[in-house]
Design brief:
single chain, mainly beta, 6-stranded parallel β-sheet
């Protein structure tokens, strides 16, 4: 469990995995990271194995005309991505994931939104993935305090109860 947020680099805005390492990321969040050339959040370059399980990639960006707003992968033996969420990442090619060559990629049970047909560039296998052109609206910050929490839920319920006369089942 870890969070990588608001980082910037030439390649791999948050993490640059290179030359023989075998990282595993479990329940990690990669938010609002920026790379100039490739891999808004992650670059995997000539490594043995890379595994992402239950991770979230949101709002990561490649500024120039490179690829992989979330993950850029080249020359890696195995890349496994399972039960991850990719939303509103951006790159000219492979808004979420860019797979260059010589990579055995498996992507299972992941959710992709905000990139349409540009979500994944390159060959991969896997199943149970969902792709949406637009991301569902998140819960609102109803009281405008900068955080979404129980106070927002209570305000939404208060407004709803007022519109139904306080009768939960509407009768």
């Amino acid at each position: 469990d870890c969070t990588f947020e608001n980082n910037a680099a030439h390649d791999g805005g948050a993490v640059n995995n290179a030359w023989g390492c075998s990282p595993t990321f479990t329940r990690c969040s990669f938010h609002s990271n920026t790379a100039y050339w490739k891999g808004g959040a992650i670059v995997n370059y000539n490594i043995d194995t890379s595994i992402f399980i239950g991770c979230t990639f949101m709002g990561n960006t490649v500024e120039f005309d490179g690829g992989g707003g979330g993950i850029y992968c080249s020359g890696t033996d195995d890349l496994t991505i399972a039960n991850c969420t990719f939303s509103n990442n951006s790159a000219d090619i492979g808004g979420d994931i860019y797979i260059l060559y010589d990579v055995d990629v498996t992507i299972d049970n992941c959710d992709f939104c905000g990139n349409g047909n540009n979500s994944i560039h390159g060959p991969y296998s896997g199943s149970g993935n969902t792709f949406l052109d637009e991301c569902p609206q998140a819960c609102p910050d109803a009281n405008d305090d900068g955080h979404v929490g129980i106070a927002d839920l209570l305000l939404v319920l208060e407004n709803w109860m007022g519109s139904t006369g306080g009768d939960v089942d509407g009768s």
